[in-house]
Design brief:
Blueprint lengths: L1 H8 L3 H19 L1 H11 L5 H24 L3 H10 L10 H8 L1 H25 L8 H18 L13
Amino acid sequence: MFLLSGLWHGANWTYVAWGGLHGLYLVLAILLAGAVVWFDGITGLVRHPRLRRALAVLVTLHLVVFGWVFFRADNFAEAGEVITSWTRIDGSTRGLIALAREIGAGIVATTLAFALLFIVLDPWADAIAKGERSIPWRPARFAYFGALLAACLVFGNYGAAMFIYFQF
Protein backbone atom coordinates (compact mmCIF):
# COMPACT_ATOMS: atom_id res chain seq x y z
CA MET A 1 0.00 0.00 0.00
CA PHE A 2 2.80 2.42 0.87
CA LEU A 3 4.58 1.65 -2.41
CA LEU A 4 1.38 2.53 -4.28
CA SER A 5 1.06 5.76 -2.31
CA GLY A 6 4.56 6.59 -3.50
CA LEU A 7 3.53 5.97 -7.11
CA TRP A 8 0.43 8.11 -6.59
CA HIS A 9 2.68 11.06 -5.71
CA GLY A 10 4.75 10.76 -8.86
CA ALA A 11 6.08 8.52 -11.59
CA ASN A 12 9.62 8.22 -10.28
CA TRP A 13 11.42 5.49 -8.35
CA THR A 14 12.33 7.96 -5.63
CA TYR A 15 8.62 8.35 -4.81
CA VAL A 16 8.30 4.57 -4.58
CA ALA A 17 11.29 4.55 -2.22
CA TRP A 18 9.62 7.27 -0.12
CA GLY A 19 6.44 5.19 0.15
CA GLY A 20 8.45 2.04 0.85
CA LEU A 21 10.35 3.75 3.65
CA HIS A 22 7.10 4.71 5.37
CA GLY A 23 5.87 1.15 5.03
CA LEU A 24 9.15 -0.12 6.46
CA TYR A 25 8.85 2.31 9.37
CA LEU A 26 5.40 0.95 10.20
CA VAL A 27 6.54 -2.69 10.00
CA LEU A 28 9.56 -1.94 12.20
CA ALA A 29 7.37 -0.11 14.73
CA ILE A 30 5.16 -3.20 15.03
CA LEU A 31 8.06 -5.67 15.14
CA LEU A 32 10.09 -3.64 17.62
CA ALA A 33 7.23 -2.70 19.97
CA GLY A 34 8.39 -5.25 22.55
CA ALA A 35 11.99 -4.06 22.31
CA VAL A 36 10.84 -0.46 22.85
CA VAL A 37 8.94 -1.48 26.02
CA TRP A 38 12.06 -3.35 27.22
CA PHE A 39 14.27 -0.34 26.42
CA ASP A 40 11.89 2.01 28.26
CA GLY A 41 12.06 -0.28 31.28
CA ILE A 42 15.84 -0.61 31.51
CA THR A 43 16.49 3.08 30.85
CA GLY A 44 13.79 4.33 33.21
CA LEU A 45 11.89 6.13 30.46
CA VAL A 46 8.75 4.38 31.64
CA ARG A 47 8.85 6.67 34.71
CA HIS A 48 9.28 9.79 32.54
CA PRO A 49 6.48 9.82 29.96
CA ARG A 50 7.15 13.41 28.84
CA LEU A 51 10.79 12.63 28.08
CA ARG A 52 9.76 9.40 26.34
CA ARG A 53 7.25 11.34 24.24
CA ALA A 54 9.86 13.98 23.36
CA LEU A 55 12.31 11.27 22.24
CA ALA A 56 9.59 9.57 20.20
CA VAL A 57 8.76 12.88 18.48
CA LEU A 58 12.45 13.49 17.69
CA VAL A 59 12.95 9.99 16.28
CA THR A 60 9.79 10.26 14.18
CA LEU A 61 10.81 13.69 12.89
CA HIS A 62 14.21 12.42 11.78
CA LEU A 63 12.75 9.37 10.06
CA VAL A 64 10.21 11.50 8.18
CA VAL A 65 12.84 14.07 7.15
CA PHE A 66 15.04 11.23 5.90
CA GLY A 67 12.09 10.04 3.78
CA TRP A 68 11.52 13.53 2.40
CA VAL A 69 14.95 13.42 0.82
CA PHE A 70 13.71 10.69 -1.52
CA PHE A 71 10.41 12.49 -2.07
CA ARG A 72 12.18 15.65 -3.21
CA ALA A 73 15.17 14.16 -5.07
CA ASP A 74 15.07 13.73 -8.84
CA ASN A 75 17.04 10.47 -8.64
CA PHE A 76 18.83 8.21 -6.17
CA ALA A 77 22.22 9.79 -6.85
CA GLU A 78 20.88 13.17 -5.81
CA ALA A 79 19.28 11.66 -2.70
CA GLY A 80 22.59 10.02 -1.81
CA GLU A 81 24.42 13.33 -2.22
CA VAL A 82 21.97 15.09 0.09
CA ILE A 83 22.22 12.37 2.73
CA THR A 84 26.03 12.29 2.68
CA SER A 85 26.17 16.10 2.77
CA TRP A 86 24.45 16.09 6.16
CA THR A 87 27.57 14.75 7.81
CA ARG A 88 30.20 16.87 6.07
CA ILE A 89 32.20 19.18 8.32
CA ASP A 90 35.02 19.94 5.88
CA GLY A 91 34.01 23.56 5.27
CA SER A 92 32.46 22.79 1.89
CA THR A 93 29.31 24.52 0.74
CA ARG A 94 27.19 21.61 1.90
CA GLY A 95 26.39 20.18 5.29
CA LEU A 96 24.72 21.35 8.46
CA ILE A 97 27.44 23.79 9.45
CA ALA A 98 27.33 25.46 6.03
CA LEU A 99 23.54 25.60 6.25
CA ALA A 100 23.74 27.30 9.65
CA ARG A 101 26.24 29.80 8.25
CA GLU A 102 24.05 30.49 5.24
CA ILE A 103 20.72 31.03 6.97
CA GLY A 104 22.16 32.86 9.97
CA ALA A 105 22.30 32.39 13.70
CA GLY A 106 18.95 34.15 14.25
CA ILE A 107 16.99 31.69 12.15
CA VAL A 108 18.81 28.73 13.70
CA ALA A 109 18.10 30.05 17.22
CA THR A 110 14.44 30.72 16.37
CA THR A 111 14.04 27.24 14.89
CA LEU A 112 15.63 25.61 17.92
CA ALA A 113 13.47 27.70 20.27
CA PHE A 114 10.28 26.66 18.49
CA ALA A 115 11.43 23.02 18.45
CA LEU A 116 12.11 23.11 22.19
CA LEU A 117 8.79 24.84 22.81
CA PHE A 118 7.04 22.14 20.77
CA ILE A 119 8.74 19.33 22.69
CA VAL A 120 7.79 20.88 26.02
CA LEU A 121 4.22 21.83 25.07
CA ASP A 122 3.31 18.92 22.79
CA PRO A 123 1.93 16.60 25.52
CA TRP A 124 -0.11 19.50 26.90
CA ALA A 125 -1.38 20.49 23.45
CA ASP A 126 -2.20 16.85 22.70
CA ALA A 127 -4.33 16.61 25.85
CA ILE A 128 -6.10 19.86 24.89
CA ALA A 129 -6.81 18.58 21.37
CA LYS A 130 -8.26 15.34 22.80
CA GLY A 131 -10.48 17.32 25.18
CA GLU A 132 -8.77 15.80 28.22
CA ARG A 133 -7.55 19.20 29.37
CA SER A 134 -8.38 22.84 28.76
CA ILE A 135 -6.40 26.04 28.90
CA PRO A 136 -7.73 27.41 32.20
CA TRP A 137 -6.39 30.93 32.15
CA ARG A 138 -7.43 33.41 29.44
CA PRO A 139 -3.96 35.04 29.04
CA ALA A 140 -2.45 31.56 28.65
CA ARG A 141 -4.88 30.91 25.80
CA PHE A 142 -3.84 34.12 24.07
CA ALA A 143 -0.15 33.25 24.57
CA TYR A 144 -0.67 29.72 23.23
CA PHE A 145 -2.53 30.79 20.10
CA GLY A 146 -0.19 33.77 19.69
CA ALA A 147 2.77 31.38 19.66
CA LEU A 148 1.04 29.26 17.01
CA LEU A 149 0.39 32.37 14.92
CA ALA A 150 4.01 33.50 15.36
CA ALA A 151 5.23 30.10 14.19
CA CYS A 152 3.04 30.38 11.08
CA LEU A 153 4.34 33.87 10.37
CA VAL A 154 8.00 32.96 10.92
CA PHE A 155 7.98 29.68 9.02
CA GLY A 156 5.28 30.45 6.44
CA ASN A 157 5.92 30.22 2.72
CA TYR A 158 4.87 33.48 1.15
CA GLY A 159 6.12 32.93 -2.40
CA ALA A 160 3.90 32.08 -5.32
CA ALA A 161 4.68 28.38 -5.45
CA MET A 162 2.93 26.14 -7.92
CA PHE A 163 0.82 23.32 -6.49
CA ILE A 164 3.09 20.26 -6.56
CA TYR A 165 0.66 18.03 -8.45
CA PHE A 166 0.46 20.45 -11.37
CA GLN A 167 4.05 19.47 -12.19
CA PHE A 168 3.11 16.00 -13.44
